## 1
Amino acid sequence: MTITIYGDSYSAHCDKVRFIADHLKIPYRWIRISIEKKETQSPDFLKINPAGELPVMVLADGRKLAQSNAILLFLAEGSALIPDDALDRGLMHQWLFWEQLTHNPVVGYLRFQRFLLQKPEDQIDPTLAPRADRALATMDSHLQGRRYFVGERLSVADIALVAYTRLADEGGMSLSRWPALRAWVQRVESDLGLATALSAA
Ligand SMILES: N[C@@H](CCC(=O)N[C@@H](CS)C(=O)NCC(=O)O)C(=O)O
């Protein structure tokens, strides 16, 4: 049963879905929908996801799933990317919610403003950079003495968090200030078979 993933490499939320499917060797068909060309708001796409957002996954029988982390959890079901221990599973969810509610709205959004929209600094909310620094520092502090976010092995939490974190440099947030975080990005990229997106320290 081949799944279809609607995505755009413009969005690291879409990258995450590709990363996990490739890692788990799950076959899929990738259909590119351009965010830049506003194809996400076209009547045809809104029939697939009325929220007008990528990524969306469609099963062979037509059932659909949106929200990147929900898709990751669905694809990872039954794999080693979901911890066996109940508390570790809780911690994985803790980091997935944190990624959506705290990390992405600052780390992902600052990159969007600076790198993709090329906005001049005086037109960017001045609270974004300190909040992004705080999110990255939180990750670095958690990773002191740890190799992965949960249970000392790669989980869905690492894949969700690495997607925008590895692109932080593009948003002017050099990870050289956070060595444990930087080392973790490279570890997860290597586990996933990705070339590093980090610039030289
Ligand atoms: N919480 C959602 C966020 C999805 C989202 O915001 N997608 C953006 C790209 S990162 C999008 O498709 N935007 C379409 C638009 O702005 O028209 C997820 O994790 O999947």
## 2
Amino acid sequence: MLGNQKSNAATSTQPELPAEDASATTELPVQDDGSVSPSNVSAASSLYEFVQEHGRTFHKYKEGKYFLPNDQHSISKFLLKGKLGLAPIEKPGRVLDLGTGTGIWAIEFAEENPESEVLGTDLSPIQPAYLPPNCRFEIDDVDDDWAYSHRFDYIHGRYLLPFIKKDWNHYFKTIYDNLNPGGWAECQETIIYFQSIDGSHEGTALQRWNTLLLQAIQRMGRSATEALRCKTYLAEAGFANLGEKKFAVPMNPWAKGKEQKAIGSMQMQNNLEGIDGITMTVFTRALGWVPADVEKLLVDVKNDLQDRSIHAYITVSVNHGISRQSCAR
Ligand SMILES: C[S@@+](CC[C@H](N)C(=O)[O-])C[C@H]1O[C@@H](n2cnc3c(N)ncnc32)[C@H](O)[C@@H]1O
């Protein structure tokens, strides 16, 4: 499927790939379910320090449940070295977070930038009630026509593209039209496509599951890989000063180095927790599978997800660009 993507110079950046850890002495205290136990922490004390360094909210979010966090927000902050984004923004006045989910990005952005007014929008009203005074949420569908009474200085969307309609040119143009001159757009997406540094994922249940998942998402009129072309979409919408950074995230702690092991542990935890829900929904709806067959496949896929001899990774792509339009509304 990815081989059919339009080639474009704007999509050429590649993530730096992790290296295999050939050492047998670097065991981390990762438990069967992928969490890392604080009772086993001596071997991981440097890992703990690293996590603390790069994400001040790691222990605050889901406090006490796991030594390492297990959610996408934490993975994102880990990759971005504790930052919420990579666009070189300077005190943006009005900020919009599209598909805000729990609102955690919007809330943290508001806390870190008290001079900003942050609006988070989502289809679902799942955001908390107690908020920083400069943060609020609205129910909205990004696929609908936008009717904001003012433009924004920073529009951010994370893990959203696979959920919205396939007219991504329209999506990025709408973002452009809703920015003030000099305003920044930023998107961060996980491309749900497993690759490996050495072909070790080929022929696995994981690869079979992944191929089926991409087919199913396509049948639902969406795409889980289109985010690879974010830079092209930003350019075509008129954005300038384009920035793109891609990260290869190991699917478990197979890779060498404490940072790679930390991010791999979090990713494994995240995948193990999320895979039942997404697979059951998508495979039964779009592929017509019966739940028993989904469950059977998932037994093998979960084993693969924890198998350190499979050197697989997924790609996270972070893109930004500035609006160069000259007249404000
Ligand atoms: C994977 S979550 C990401 C949440 C958040 N952006 C984050 O990074 O924590 C995707 C979110 O997009 C929302 N969403 C999906 N389709 C949407 C749409 N058409 N308009 C607005 N929100 C949408 C979902 O409700 C969900 O909360």
